[in-house]
Design a protein that fits this description.
There is one protein chain. This protein is α/β, with parallel strands linked by helices and about 180 residues long. It has five helices and seven strands; from the N terminus they run ααβαβαββαβββ. It has a seven-stranded mixed beta sheet with strand order 3-2-1-4-5-7-6, covered by helices on one side. Helix 5 links the parallel strand 4 and strand 5. The longest helix is centred in the N-terminal third of the chain and has 26 residues. The structure holds S-adenosylmethionine (SAM). S-adenosylmethionine (SAM) binds next to helix 1, helix 3 and strand 2. Keywords: Methyltransferase, S-adenosyl-L-methionine, Transferase.
């Protein structure tokens, strides 16, 4: 009997890990983390002001949201649906909150939630690293929901429907980062 429970548990775990990764790839992008050396450029381009609300769509292991939160005194919400990166980001957040960067406390939330269900009209800044396929699906939502003076920052891939206000690509081999203003 206990062997049956073990196998059932293992199957559930495998489904949770690989099933959620497959779901994320299907919805908008697989988990591929942003390069550490690009984090500073992403944070600079976001130009976040005090008390603004910042979303990250597909926050992965939390590296971008947490880096932004260390630098800017604003409110951050990360949305993630792949189980393993979500878990890693929550563990990172726990340690930063409790042992290292106490001023983060209460300013960062990482939600296990599909960002297509989020209300973008609450955000001043939205940051993401998604596939062109995922971005295409988001275009109409951006058009409908982004409020005046809000910005979006797209790592690597441009959004075809909009003209960027700024493109950062310091060298031939650097990843492009696109900033759009509404
Ligand atoms: C290319 S990765 C980028 C991760 C992180 N933003 C970074 O730059 O390191 C894209 C992330 O989006 C997540 N994702 C894809 N579709 C999603 C959805 N509909 N809702 C929430 N997360 C999603 C994936 O699981 C993945 O972690």
């Amino acid at each position: 009997m206990s062997e049956l429970f073990f196998h059932f548990g293992l199957l559930l775990l495998i489904l949770l890990v690989f099933g959620t990764m497959a779901l994320a790839s299907y919805r908008a992008a697989p988990w591929v983390p942003a390069r550490k050396k690009d984090l500073l450029r992403i944070t600079e381009l976001a130009g976040i002001k005090k008390d603004e609300v910042v979303y990250e769509l597909g926050s992965g292991d939390g590296r971008v949201t947490l880096e932004l939160a260390k630098r800017y005194d604003a409110q951050f919400i990360g949305y993630e649906i792949s189980f393993i990166p979500y878990l890693v980001s929550r563990i990172r957040l726990f340690f930063l909150n409790n042992f290292f960067v106490h001023r983060l406390k209460g300013r960062v939330k990482i939600l296990y939630k599909d960002f297509f269900r989020a209300d973008f009209s609450q955000a001043n800044v939205i940051v993401f690293f998604l596939t062109p396929y995922g971005l295409k699906k988001l275009e109409s939502k951006f058009k409908k929901e982004m409020k005046k003076d809000s910005r979006i920052v797209s790592y690597v891939f441009p959004i075809k429907a909009f003209t960027p206000a700024v493109v950062s690509k310091p060298t031939e081999t650097s990843n492009s980062i696109y900033c759009y203003r509404f």
